[in-house]
Design brief:
Helices cover 39% and strands 12% of the residues. With 308 residues, the protein is an alpha+beta fold. Bound molecules: iron/sulfur cluster (2 copies).
Length: 308
């Protein structure tokens, strides 16, 4: 299957980032140049796993007579590896990077929770948690793909922050992880937007999950907390509609000066989102949210975190 989706490159391959740097006469990204060995080790870990994305497939294939049972088995395994939620669906060309050939039938998404308690610490603590969660996702996807190849005898390729060809948000929606929020991240009923992904594309026959909507997009129409707290004024009021789904397009040129061109990480739009507790009713997360919003108020809602 040949991919049809334009996927923004990461790091210095990101054309929008390079253009923004050029416009400002800059030649590197202050956030990444800032020495931070633990975060950099987590990034290196993802990159170190790239050669293990694929591997030999066992010659004996396990016949799958019950796709629902196999889906449950894969979910059990992914959770045992550390995933907070797992979902699967048919791989479609629009889920795959433009021009990339992926010969697989299905895509499995495995997401890991990003600890919300870090939000009340420092931008560095949130940065480290984000990158450590990406590293955990890379471990989960790499091991799950290996098990599918070697124990079930089906081709399987891991996709994670070291290297991926998958369009994350449409897959998240399709496998029932939730709805797209105004801040541009998908909102999960249990995890809010505090998670990072890994994927496996595979021929293993599995039953598919269904999209799950629980009123997020309607709520975003009147909430506006992310927009009102974004130091870059990068989150818009208006939206476009694609296939019946609202998409608020974050203005990257306004976001980057806050999230990349300073030495401190910015994750404010996600951390002010009440869905961290709103749907799951988690009392501890609700208390952290209140604590976090108190800090925002003291710092000034639109002040980049850690600047006062
Ligand atoms: S990362 Fe920061 S600057 Fe960028 S959209 Fe979110 S809150 Fe705004
Ligand atoms: S903060 Fe409010 S408006 Fe923004 S994504 Fe979350 S619920 Fe939607």
């Amino acid at each position: 299957m040949k991919g049809t989706s334009w996927i923004r490159e990461q790091g210095m391959q990101d054309a929008l980032l390079c253009a923004a740097l050029r416009d400002r006469g800059m030649d590197d990204v202050p956030l990444w140049q800032h020495p931070f060995p633990k975060r950099d080790a987590a990034m290196t870990h993802c990159n170190d796993l790239v050669p293990r994305r694929d591997g030999p497939v066992a010659p004996e294939r396990v016949e799958v007579v019950d796709e629902a049972a196999m889906a449950e088995e894969i979910k059990r395994r992914a959770r045992a590896l550390g995933a907070a939620d797992v979902g699967m669906t048919a791989l479609k060309p629009e889920f795959v990077e433009l021009g990339v050939e992926l010969p697989h039938r299905n895509v499995i998404a495995a997401i890991c929770y990003e600890d919300y308690r870090k939000s009340v610490e420092s931008p560095q603590a949130v940065d480290l948690e984000a990158m450590s969660t990406y590293a955990k996702c890379a471990d989960v996807a790499t091991e799950l793909a290996r098990q599918i190849r070697e124990e079930f005898g089906y081709p399987a390729l891991a996709h994670h922050n070291g290297s991926f060809q998958i369009q994350a948000i449409p897959v998240f929606y399709e496998v029932g992880f939730g709805e797209l929020g105004r801040h541009g991240s998908l909102i999960h009923p249990e995890l809010g937007a505090n998670f990072r992904p890994g994927f496996v594309t595979t021929d293993l026959p599995v039953a598919y999950d269904e999209p799950y909507e629980f009123g997020v997009q309607d709520y975003c129409m009147s909430c506006n907390l992310c927009r009102n707290n974004c130091p870059g004024d990068a989150i818009p009021d208006g939206y476009i509609v694609t296939d019946g789904i609202k998409r608020w397009l974050t203005d990257i040129d306004k976001c980057y000066p806050i999230s990349r061109f300073r030495e401190a990480y910015c994750h404010i739009c996600v951390d002010v989102c009440p869905y961290i507790y709103k749907e799951n009713g988690d009392a501890e997360k609700r208390d952290i949210f209140r604590q976090y919003m108190k800090i925002r108020k003291e710092e000034g809602y639109k002040t980049p975190k850690g600047e006062r």
